[in-house]
Each structure stands twice: as C-alpha cells, then as structure tokens.
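Write out the 3D structure for:
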Amino acid sequence: MARVKGGKTSNKRRKNILAQAKGYRFGRSTKTRMAKEAIFHAGKYAFAHRRDKKNDMRRLWTVRINGALDTMGNAVSYSRLIDAMNKKGVLVNRKMLSELAAKSPRTFEAIVKKVS
C-alpha cells in the first residue's frame, strides 16, 4: 500500500486554527500550538460569560427599579415591592418593571401605588 503523508490536511488544519486566532497578539496569532491553546481558552470564557451576562442584566434591572423607587420618595424598597407584587398577584417581571421605570415613570408609579 502506498504511503500517504497528509500534508494537505495538516496545512488546512493549521490554516483554520490560525484564521480563528487572527487578531491575537504575539505568538498566539502565528504559532499553531499557542493559537490552539488561546482558542480553547477563548471558547471557555465565551461560554461562561454568556451565562454571566444573564446575571449582570438581572442585577441591572434590580438597580434600576430601586433607583426609580428612591426618586419617587416612597418608603418602599425593591424587596418590599417584589413581595407586595407577588402577594397581590401582579404578573410583571423585573425586566419589564425596569423598562417602565426608565421609559415610563407614570406607569411604573401607578403599579407601585396599586401594590403598596
């Protein structure tokens, strides 16, 4: 059986790895082994931070709602508002509440008055 060296496949693989590492600095963009490791780590960070982004947004919504409650001058805090909404059965999620607080303060104030 004839020997197959596989240079074409190897070159294609290397080219693909270096193309993914385009824009990286120093040896990470030119050396295959370093590029491969950099791509691996980048993928892990991207996966983890897609999850973290969801937590970050939820924290942002909380801060927006609490800030809007402070400007209204009520004695109601964020946690008391959410508790009152759950008890009254008002089904507006935190994302929508924060949007209302930022863009439509009158509607937000009406919701707060209804539940408290």
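Residues 9-115 form one domain.
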